[in-house]
Amino acid sequence: MNTRNRRTFILHAAGLCAALATAGRALAAPALVDENDATAKSLGYRAKASSVDASKFPKYAAGQRCANCRFFTGAAGEAAGACPMFSGKAVAADGWCNVYAQRA
Q1: For 41-54, what is each residue's pLDDT tens digit?
Q2: Which CATH number is correct for 31-104, 3.60.21.10, 4.10.490.10, 3.30.70.1560, 3.40.50.1970?
């Protein structure tokens, strides 16, 4: 193998390694919202809708959960998905927050 081909191979291999390393981070699922997050607290977010204190959040009704909210963008059957209320983070499909709006 001559010097030019070897250099070209090494540069291409390094570029491929760098692309693969960054692709893993780009394709990783967003972190789940923590109930102690400031936004989550202000919206009354709970990762389990069954743990919502109905006396604090009278809007809550049994059966309401992120999976059937109009703002939830996760696919059917997924355990978590994106919500515009929590930019860059995922919410639990079984969760609930005070912005809940029934999906039409």
Answers
A1: 999 999 999 999 99
A2: 4.10.490.10
